[in-house]
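User: Please fill in residues for this 204-position structure.
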């Protein structure tokens, strides 16, 4: 009788071990598939990035004067208070920065645009573009950061709660690197200002 119980216990133990090994094997296979999938996806991203770099390298950058001609005098109720041009000359990048304020001097927005065309700019665009490709969301008592798509633009959006300010970073038209910083303007107000800037005119 004791021998029979030992045999049964042994068989049960072997079965449990086999089940455990099977579950572990399934988990390992699942993990391996995830690694392969991630690697394949990364490889596709790298290939796509390389193609984008080659495309942008062939384009002629806009001139600083063309960027200056584009920069609007006002954005909604905000008037342009200043601009900077040519800061990217040492990197051979066409670049402009404009600052806008409301009459009460409380609301303020700053926009910086760099042209990603040409040898130098083309190397920067893919890196900035990846900011919007990764779906992220982080929130604490100070800020709320997330990946969003607004009016067809995929961007890294950060809202700073205490100062009611917003930062947007995105690639426009697969070429122009755009950074927007606002004070006393929430997310909706900031995106509204971006829409009024008529970035589509940069395409021409």
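Assistant: Residues filled in for all 204 positions:
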């Amino acid at each position: 009788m004791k021998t029979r119980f030992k045999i049964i216990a042994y068989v049960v133990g072997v079965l449990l071990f086999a089940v455990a090994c099977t579950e572990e094997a399934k988990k390992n296979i699942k993990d391996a598939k995830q690694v392969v999938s991630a690697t394949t996806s990364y490889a596709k991203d790298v290939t796509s990035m390389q193609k984008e770099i080659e495309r942008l390298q062939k384009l002629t950058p806009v001139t600083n004067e063309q960027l200056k001609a584009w920069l609007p005098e006002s954005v909604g109720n905000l008037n342009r208070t200043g601009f900077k041009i040519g800061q990217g000359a040492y990197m051979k990048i066409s670049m402009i920065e404009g600052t806008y304020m409301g009459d009460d001097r409380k609301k303020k927005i700053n926009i910086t645009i760099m042209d990603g065309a040409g040898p130098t700019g083309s190397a920067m665009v893919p890196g900035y573009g990846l900011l919007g490709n990764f779906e992220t969301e982080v929130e604490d008592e100070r800020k709320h950061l997330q990946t969003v798509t607004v009016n067809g633009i995929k961007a890294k959006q950060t809202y700073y709660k205490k100062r009611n300010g917003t930062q947007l970073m995105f690639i426009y038209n697969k070429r122009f690197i755009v950074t927007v910083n606002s004070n006393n303007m929430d997310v909706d107000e900031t995106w509204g200002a971006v829409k009024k800037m008529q970035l589509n005119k940069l395409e021409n």
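For context: The first strand starts at residue 74 and ends at 75.
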